[in-house]
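User: Fold this; tokens only.

Assistant: Input:
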Amino acid sequence: MTATTIMSTDVVTLKADDTIAKALQLMCKHAVHNMPVLDNDGTFLGLFSLRRLSRELLPKAAKLDENSLLMHINFMPDGTDQLLKRLNKLGHKPVSSLLEKNNKLRVCNPDTMLPELLQLLFESPTSLPVIVVEGKKKKLVGMVSNWDVLTKLSVNLLSNKDDMPCVNAKEESKTDAE
């Protein structure tokens, strides 16, 4: 099994100059958490994610350093109005200003085998999907998430019921009882 047989290819994408507001509308419409950002030639530039956006919506004091997210921020009187102001301010910015950092992204090619894909997914510090690109120009061809792998493995398991020990054991028990 390779990335080609597992990946999602119906990926909704963004251009670097699309606004964050537009990205959020598309994310809601398509029920996705991550959207690849491409240049005009289809080259992968980065990933816009709800995870990264959520971090930007935190109060400024909570973003002072990487360890600040471990502290309790309940004392900060930050209501819905402040959150909406930050979101509105961010909404006009291009998605390119808020891409996931390269060290958090995992990239592979269409021929990457399942064990390596699983390792890439496991290594991802934030459960981001593996980006599948082709060629030196890094043309996006798809993405592989944990759900893609689980779905593909489940379908294969269910289609090979005869090979499943639990199913065979149940059938043998039924035969023994008769």
